């Protein structure tokens, strides 16, 4: 089994016993990670944090934009066409953000930045922009927690030793997983783009944990491959890096809802 004590860019503060917990090791989705973090907070009796602001609310679910059924430029899959002109790091969330149910969570999506295609658990066709990488980081990692996670990993994780290690770990632990099917109180709250070029991007995601009035953040690295963004794991199968707590949204772009 992969050593659960290592995470991309970690500071070492999230070492034992938290990393030894099976739920933490699985890390099926960002919000599931935050749920475990919340439990860890209660166990260690940390001081109560200041009251946090409200979480995003759901907007009516929208279907993908059916632009045309021909392949886009630059090797994009058929039916996928986006405006890739904005290459600067975002300073605000897009005005066309809406919230789409993904399992027990609400996930941010955009008709301009993606995802524009929905094939079961595989949400794809993201803009080749920093904002497109942001939406990909949220959608892809969230859907690791769905029943169709194998298809998500096969189609939306960069092939290699890292993907093989992640699949091996998930497969070994799959029978021990359970989902209640109930809506989760943890919500996506904001983001920041740590690094970006046309080949790779690292996005930090901020989530709110209402039960402890706190926020948790972690980073996801993506690579542009086969005409779309894909998650790039470490060679040992680690998906998430830089896991930490924060008491507010300073330094992050909030979703504004």
TrEMBL record:
Keywords: Membrane, Transmembrane, Transmembrane helix. Residues 65-253 form the DUF8175 domain. InterPro entries: DUF8175. Residues 51-65 have a biased composition (Low complexity). The chain crosses the membrane at residues 24-43. Pfam families: DUF8175 (PF26526). Residues 46-92 are annotated as: Disordered. This is DUF8175 domain-containing protein. It comes from Streptomyces capitiformicae. The lineage of its organism: Bacteria, Bacillati, Actinomycetota, Actinomycetes, Kitasatosporales.
